[in-house]
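Duplicate of #3305? Posting structure anyway:
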């Protein structure tokens, strides 16, 4: 028969048991490493999706204001909290913070740093993210006003320069190690 049950008439020897335990330990270690990798990939995709959702919310908000001729409203978006432009905040958003210390923010949380006018996400899987300059692993996002510079001075002058939109700038490179 093709499927015969193999029965040992003797118990496993210590060597056989040790080999079995080692093989199982290697398999479990490989599985845990693979799960950690997949968790980091999922976090990267979730971060990308959140940034795209915020970008889409900004585009809709700016398009609405452009159609209404609300140039002051467009100009007010520069440095504003991008979460205010989306229907639903990203998962783990804890709000706007003044004098935020990234060391006290839990990984996986988003917050708006009012002093730097940037939206910050703390990376969970720091082992798969290249941390620049020893800072906490994080990604910062900021809204920047785009405008026609009528007088060429390089600064937005309300009433003189015309806002053309708002762009989402990712200030920290997304340096995932996979």
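Output from current build:
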């Amino acid at each position: 028969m093709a499927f015969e049950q193999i029965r040992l008439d003797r118990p496993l020897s210590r060597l056989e048991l040790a080999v079995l335990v080692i093989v199982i330990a290697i398999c479990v270690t490989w599985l845990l490493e693979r799960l950690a990798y997949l968790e980091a990939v999922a976090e990267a995709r979730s971060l990308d999706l959140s940034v795209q959702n915020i970008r889409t919310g900004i585009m809709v908000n700016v398009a609405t204001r452009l159609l209404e001729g609300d140039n002051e409203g467009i100009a007010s978006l520069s440095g504003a909290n991008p979460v205010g432009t989306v229907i639903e905040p990203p998962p783990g958003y804890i709000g706007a913070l003044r004098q935020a210390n990234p060391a006290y923010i839990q990984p996986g949380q988003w917050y708006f740093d009012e002093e730097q006018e940037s939206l910050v996400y703390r990376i969970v899987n720091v082992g798969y993210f290249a941390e620049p300059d020893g800072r906490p692993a994080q990604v910062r996002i900021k809204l920047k006003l785009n405008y026609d510079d009528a007088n060429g001075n390089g600064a937005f002058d309300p009433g003189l320069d015309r806002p053309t939109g708002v762009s989402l700038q990712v200030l920290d490179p997304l340096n995932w190690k996979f």
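Confirmed duplicate; merging threads. The chain is about 35% helix and 20% strand. The mean pLDDT is 88.
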